[in-house]
Amino acid sequence: MKNEYNIEYQELPSVKIRDADVVINRVCWGGSVSGKVGTEDAPDAILIETEQMEYYDEDLEYSPMKYMQVHVCESIYEFEKIKTSFSGRSSEKNQLLISLGGDHSITPQLTLALLKKPATILFLDAHADLRRSYLGDTNSHATPAFQLLKQGHKLVMVGIRSMFETEALRIKEDKNIHCFMDRALRREKVRKELLQTVSELEGDVYLSIDMDVFDPACVPGVGTPQAGGIDYYFATDILEALFLDSNAVIKGVDMVELIPEDSKVSQLFAAKLLQKIISYWGRSQGVQNREQTGGQMQVKYE
Ligand SMILES: [Mn+2]
User: Fold this and answer.
1) What is the 15 CA–ligand 1 centroid distance (Å)?
2) N or C: which end of the chain has fewer CB within 10 A?
3) How many domains does the chain have?
Protein backbone atom coordinates (compact mmCIF):
# COMPACT_ATOMS: atom_id res chain seq x y z
CA MET A 1 0.00 0.00 0.00
CA LYS A 2 1.60 3.27 -1.10
CA ASN A 3 1.28 6.17 1.30
CA GLU A 4 -0.01 9.35 -0.24
CA TYR A 5 1.24 11.73 2.45
CA ASN A 6 4.60 12.52 3.97
CA ILE A 7 5.71 10.39 6.89
CA GLU A 8 8.72 11.66 8.82
CA TYR A 9 10.84 10.40 11.68
CA GLN A 10 9.41 11.82 14.93
CA GLU A 11 7.53 14.36 12.79
CA LEU A 12 10.81 16.20 12.26
CA PRO A 13 11.53 17.98 8.98
CA SER A 14 13.26 15.71 6.43
CA VAL A 15 16.36 17.54 5.14
CA LYS A 16 18.19 16.91 1.86
CA ILE A 17 20.03 13.58 1.86
CA ARG A 18 23.47 15.22 1.66
CA ASP A 19 22.75 17.33 4.78
CA ALA A 20 21.41 14.44 6.87
CA ASP A 21 23.17 12.69 9.74
CA VAL A 22 20.65 9.86 9.60
CA VAL A 23 19.18 8.49 6.37
CA ILE A 24 16.13 6.26 6.73
CA ASN A 25 15.41 3.99 3.79
CA ARG A 26 11.89 2.54 3.43
CA VAL A 27 12.09 -0.86 1.74
CA CYS A 28 8.48 -1.91 1.22
CA TRP A 29 9.30 -5.36 -0.07
CA GLY A 30 7.49 -8.43 1.26
CA GLY A 31 7.63 -10.53 -1.87
CA SER A 32 9.30 -13.59 -0.45
CA VAL A 33 7.42 -14.07 2.80
CA SER A 34 6.25 -17.62 3.39
CA GLY A 35 4.41 -17.01 6.66
CA LYS A 36 2.08 -14.07 7.36
CA VAL A 37 2.03 -11.16 4.89
CA GLY A 38 2.36 -7.43 5.51
CA THR A 39 6.09 -6.69 5.95
CA GLU A 40 5.85 -4.18 3.09
CA ASP A 41 3.65 -1.99 5.33
CA ALA A 42 6.16 -1.94 8.21
CA PRO A 43 8.39 1.05 7.27
CA ASP A 44 5.57 3.59 7.40
CA ALA A 45 3.89 1.92 10.40
CA ILE A 46 7.16 2.18 12.36
CA LEU A 47 7.74 5.81 11.35
CA ILE A 48 4.17 6.72 12.36
CA GLU A 49 4.83 5.30 15.84
CA THR A 50 8.04 7.35 16.19
CA GLU A 51 5.65 10.29 16.64
CA GLN A 52 4.79 8.78 20.05
CA MET A 53 8.40 8.77 21.21
CA GLU A 54 9.96 11.42 23.45
CA TYR A 55 13.01 13.15 21.97
CA TYR A 56 14.98 12.64 25.19
CA ASP A 57 16.98 9.44 25.55
CA GLU A 58 16.59 8.27 29.14
CA ASP A 59 19.63 5.95 28.92
CA LEU A 60 22.16 8.33 27.40
CA GLU A 61 20.61 11.41 29.04
CA TYR A 62 20.55 13.64 25.98
CA SER A 63 18.19 14.61 23.16
CA PRO A 64 19.86 13.33 19.98
CA MET A 65 17.64 15.24 17.58
CA LYS A 66 18.78 18.57 19.01
CA TYR A 67 22.03 17.84 17.20
CA MET A 68 21.07 15.72 14.19
CA GLN A 69 19.06 15.95 10.97
CA VAL A 70 17.17 13.14 9.27
CA HIS A 71 16.36 12.34 5.68
CA VAL A 72 13.55 9.87 4.97
CA CYS A 73 13.95 8.28 1.53
CA GLU A 74 11.23 7.63 -1.01
CA SER A 75 9.73 4.16 -0.53
CA ILE A 76 11.18 1.32 -2.60
CA TYR A 77 8.62 -1.17 -3.95
CA GLU A 78 10.72 -3.17 -6.41
CA PHE A 79 13.30 -5.78 -5.42
CA GLU A 80 15.72 -4.76 -8.20
CA LYS A 81 15.88 -1.22 -6.84
CA ILE A 82 17.04 -2.20 -3.34
CA LYS A 83 20.69 -2.57 -4.34
CA THR A 84 20.77 1.06 -5.48
CA SER A 85 19.40 2.20 -2.11
CA PHE A 86 20.63 5.49 -0.62
CA SER A 87 21.31 6.76 -4.18
CA GLY A 88 24.68 5.02 -4.19
CA ARG A 89 25.84 6.59 -0.93
CA SER A 90 28.21 4.86 1.43
CA SER A 91 28.72 5.94 5.00
CA GLU A 92 31.95 7.86 4.29
CA LYS A 93 30.26 11.10 5.26
CA ASN A 94 29.61 9.86 8.79
CA GLN A 95 26.01 9.16 8.02
CA LEU A 96 23.92 6.49 9.67
CA LEU A 97 22.23 4.58 6.83
CA ILE A 98 19.31 2.61 8.17
CA SER A 99 16.77 0.57 6.24
CA LEU A 100 13.33 -0.41 7.46
CA GLY A 101 12.05 -3.60 5.80
CA GLY A 102 10.46 -5.42 4.26
CA ASP A 103 11.32 -9.06 4.65
CA HIS A 104 14.81 -10.41 5.29
CA SER A 105 15.58 -10.99 1.59
CA ILE A 106 16.43 -7.27 1.36
CA THR A 107 19.60 -7.56 3.50
CA PRO A 108 22.00 -9.07 0.91
CA GLN A 109 20.80 -6.43 -1.59
CA LEU A 110 21.56 -3.68 0.94
CA THR A 111 25.03 -5.08 1.68
CA LEU A 112 25.68 -5.08 -2.08
CA ALA A 113 24.84 -1.37 -1.98
CA LEU A 114 26.87 -0.52 1.13
CA LEU A 115 29.77 -2.93 1.62
CA LYS A 116 32.63 -2.59 -0.82
CA LYS A 117 34.85 -5.15 0.92
CA PRO A 118 34.38 -8.16 3.23
CA ALA A 119 32.79 -7.08 6.51
CA THR A 120 31.23 -8.53 9.63
CA ILE A 121 27.47 -8.87 9.71
CA LEU A 122 25.93 -8.81 13.18
CA PHE A 123 22.87 -10.91 12.44
CA LEU A 124 20.07 -11.00 15.02
CA ASP A 125 17.47 -13.58 14.07
CA ALA A 126 15.41 -16.50 15.40
CA HIS A 127 16.17 -18.44 12.21
CA ALA A 128 19.51 -19.42 10.72
CA ASP A 129 18.48 -18.18 7.22
CA LEU A 130 21.30 -20.29 5.74
CA ARG A 131 19.33 -22.10 3.05
CA ARG A 132 20.82 -22.02 -0.43
CA SER A 133 17.32 -21.52 -1.82
CA TYR A 134 13.80 -21.75 -0.45
CA LEU A 135 10.72 -22.72 -2.48
CA GLY A 136 12.95 -22.36 -5.55
CA ASP A 137 13.97 -18.79 -4.68
CA THR A 138 17.64 -17.93 -3.92
CA ASN A 139 16.57 -14.41 -2.87
CA SER A 140 14.12 -15.64 -0.25
CA HIS A 141 13.74 -14.42 3.33
CA ALA A 142 15.09 -17.87 4.32
CA THR A 143 18.40 -17.39 2.47
CA PRO A 144 20.01 -14.05 3.46
CA ALA A 145 22.71 -15.52 5.73
CA PHE A 146 23.76 -17.89 2.93
CA GLN A 147 23.95 -14.96 0.50
CA LEU A 148 25.95 -12.83 2.97
CA LEU A 149 28.56 -15.60 3.37
CA LYS A 150 28.65 -15.95 -0.41
CA GLN A 151 29.42 -12.23 -0.64
CA GLY A 152 32.50 -12.93 1.52
CA HIS A 153 31.31 -11.56 4.85
CA LYS A 154 31.68 -13.02 8.33
CA LEU A 155 28.58 -13.60 10.43
CA VAL A 156 28.03 -13.14 14.14
CA MET A 157 24.62 -14.73 14.68
CA VAL A 158 22.53 -14.00 17.77
CA GLY A 159 19.29 -15.52 19.07
CA ILE A 160 19.11 -18.45 16.65
CA ARG A 161 16.56 -21.07 17.68
CA SER A 162 15.21 -22.61 14.48
CA MET A 163 17.13 -24.31 11.70
CA PHE A 164 17.23 -27.11 9.13
CA GLU A 165 19.76 -29.90 9.77
CA THR A 166 22.09 -28.75 6.98
CA GLU A 167 22.03 -25.24 8.44
CA ALA A 168 23.09 -26.59 11.85
CA LEU A 169 25.98 -28.39 10.17
CA ARG A 170 27.09 -25.25 8.35
CA ILE A 171 27.05 -23.28 11.62
CA LYS A 172 29.28 -25.92 13.24
CA GLU A 173 31.72 -26.18 10.33
CA ASP A 174 32.00 -22.73 8.76
CA LYS A 175 34.78 -20.71 10.37
CA ASN A 176 33.14 -17.52 9.14
CA ILE A 177 30.15 -18.07 11.43
CA HIS A 178 30.18 -17.30 15.14
CA CYS A 179 26.77 -18.29 16.48
CA PHE A 180 25.20 -17.49 19.84
CA MET A 181 22.18 -19.76 20.14
CA ASP A 182 19.15 -18.29 21.84
CA ARG A 183 18.93 -20.87 24.62
CA ALA A 184 22.62 -20.50 25.46
CA LEU A 185 21.96 -16.78 25.93
CA ARG A 186 19.85 -17.62 29.00
CA ARG A 187 23.19 -18.09 30.76
CA GLU A 188 24.92 -15.00 32.13
CA LYS A 189 28.33 -16.31 31.07
CA VAL A 190 27.28 -16.64 27.41
CA ARG A 191 25.57 -13.23 27.45
CA LYS A 192 28.83 -11.70 28.66
CA GLU A 193 30.74 -13.61 25.97
CA LEU A 194 28.46 -12.19 23.29
CA LEU A 195 28.77 -8.61 24.57
CA GLN A 196 32.54 -9.06 24.74
CA THR A 197 32.60 -10.37 21.14
CA VAL A 198 30.52 -7.42 19.93
CA SER A 199 32.66 -4.88 21.79
CA GLU A 200 35.75 -6.35 20.10
CA LEU A 201 34.36 -5.95 16.57
CA GLU A 202 36.44 -3.75 14.30
CA GLY A 203 36.51 -2.78 10.65
CA ASP A 204 33.32 -2.55 8.61
CA VAL A 205 30.23 -3.89 10.35
CA TYR A 206 26.64 -4.14 9.14
CA LEU A 207 23.83 -4.74 11.65
CA SER A 208 20.79 -6.73 10.56
CA ILE A 209 17.92 -7.10 13.03
CA ASP A 210 15.21 -9.60 12.15
CA MET A 211 12.43 -8.60 14.53
CA ASP A 212 11.60 -12.28 15.14
CA VAL A 213 14.79 -12.47 17.25
CA PHE A 214 12.65 -11.02 20.05
CA ASP A 215 10.30 -12.97 22.27
CA PRO A 216 6.98 -13.03 20.35
CA ALA A 217 5.31 -11.96 23.62
CA CYS A 218 7.13 -8.61 23.05
CA VAL A 219 6.92 -8.49 19.26
CA PRO A 220 3.98 -10.62 18.09
CA GLY A 221 3.87 -8.91 14.69
CA VAL A 222 6.43 -10.81 12.64
CA GLY A 223 6.23 -13.04 9.57
CA THR A 224 7.38 -16.24 11.26
CA PRO A 225 7.15 -15.99 15.08
CA GLN A 226 9.28 -18.41 17.06
CA ALA A 227 8.99 -19.32 20.77
CA GLY A 228 11.85 -18.11 22.97
CA GLY A 229 13.78 -14.99 22.03
CA ILE A 230 15.71 -12.06 23.48
CA ASP A 231 14.20 -9.02 25.16
CA TYR A 232 14.44 -5.27 24.57
CA TYR A 233 17.02 -4.58 27.27
CA PHE A 234 19.38 -7.26 26.05
CA ALA A 235 19.14 -5.76 22.56
CA THR A 236 19.99 -2.39 24.12
CA ASP A 237 23.06 -3.96 25.73
CA ILE A 238 24.13 -5.27 22.30
CA LEU A 239 23.67 -1.80 20.75
CA GLU A 240 25.70 -0.28 23.56
CA ALA A 241 28.54 -2.77 23.04
CA LEU A 242 28.49 -2.18 19.28
CA PHE A 243 28.13 1.60 19.13
CA LEU A 244 29.89 2.74 22.30
CA ASP A 245 32.45 0.05 23.16
CA SER A 246 33.67 -1.28 19.79
CA ASN A 247 35.90 0.30 17.15
CA ALA A 248 33.60 -0.93 14.40
CA VAL A 249 32.70 1.31 11.46
CA ILE A 250 28.93 0.91 11.09
CA LYS A 251 28.25 0.78 7.35
CA GLY A 252 24.53 0.16 7.61
CA VAL A 253 21.67 -1.14 9.73
CA ASP A 254 18.41 -2.82 8.86
CA MET A 255 15.30 -3.85 10.78
CA VAL A 256 13.24 -6.44 8.94
CA GLU A 257 10.28 -8.86 9.08
CA LEU A 258 7.97 -6.68 11.16
CA ILE A 259 4.27 -6.95 10.39
CA PRO A 260 2.16 -4.10 11.79
CA GLU A 261 -0.67 -5.36 14.01
CA ASP A 262 -3.74 -3.82 15.64
CA SER A 263 -2.37 -3.46 19.17
CA LYS A 264 0.56 -1.48 17.65
CA VAL A 265 2.86 -2.97 20.32
CA SER A 266 5.11 -4.52 17.66
CA GLN A 267 5.56 -1.32 15.66
CA LEU A 268 6.02 0.74 18.88
CA PHE A 269 8.75 -1.68 19.93
CA ALA A 270 10.44 -1.27 16.54
CA ALA A 271 10.10 2.52 16.72
CA LYS A 272 11.78 2.58 20.12
CA LEU A 273 14.57 0.35 18.87
CA LEU A 274 15.07 2.63 15.86
CA GLN A 275 15.29 5.61 18.20
CA LYS A 276 17.88 3.82 20.36
CA ILE A 277 20.00 2.96 17.32
CA ILE A 278 19.98 6.60 16.22
CA SER A 279 20.74 7.82 19.73
CA TYR A 280 23.64 5.40 20.33
CA TRP A 281 25.07 6.10 16.89
CA GLY A 282 24.84 9.85 17.53
CA ARG A 283 26.67 9.45 20.83
CA SER A 284 29.38 7.38 19.09
CA GLN A 285 29.89 10.35 16.73
CA GLY A 286 30.04 12.83 19.62
CA VAL A 287 27.11 14.84 18.24
CA GLN A 288 26.31 16.20 21.71
CA ASN A 289 29.36 18.46 21.41
CA ARG A 290 27.99 20.18 18.33
CA GLU A 291 25.81 23.25 18.03
CA GLN A 292 22.14 22.61 18.65
CA THR A 293 20.92 22.92 15.08
CA GLY A 294 19.13 19.56 14.79
CA GLY A 295 15.60 18.88 13.64
CA GLN A 296 14.14 19.10 17.13
CA MET A 297 15.17 22.78 17.39
CA GLN A 298 12.68 23.59 14.65
CA VAL A 299 9.73 22.07 16.51
CA LYS A 300 7.45 24.18 18.69
CA TYR A 301 6.24 22.63 21.94
CA GLU A 302 2.96 22.90 23.87
MN1 LIG B 1 15.54 -13.73 9.09
Assistant:
1) 32
2) C
3) 1
Write the CATH number for 241: 3.40.800.10
What is the distance in A from the centroid of ligand 1 to the CA of 264?
21
- Domain-embedded: residue 6: no
Q: What is the pLDDT, as a whole number, of residue 4?
A: 47
Looking at the whole model, is its pTM more than 0.70?
Answer: yes
- Residue 7, in any domain of the structure: no
**d(CA 102, ligand 1 centre) in Å:** 11
Structural domain boundaries, residue 285: 13-298
Report, as an integer, the average pLDDT of 101-116: 94
Contact assessment for residue 232 and residue 192, using Cβ atoms and an 8 Å cutoff: no
**Any domain includes 207:** yes
Residues 6 or more apart whose Cβ sits within 8 Å of residue 183: 161, 228
Q: Out of 131-135, 187-191, 267-271, pick the least confident.
A: 131-135
Ligand 1 centre from 107 Cα, in Å? 9
Q: Is residue 114 part of a domain?
A: yes
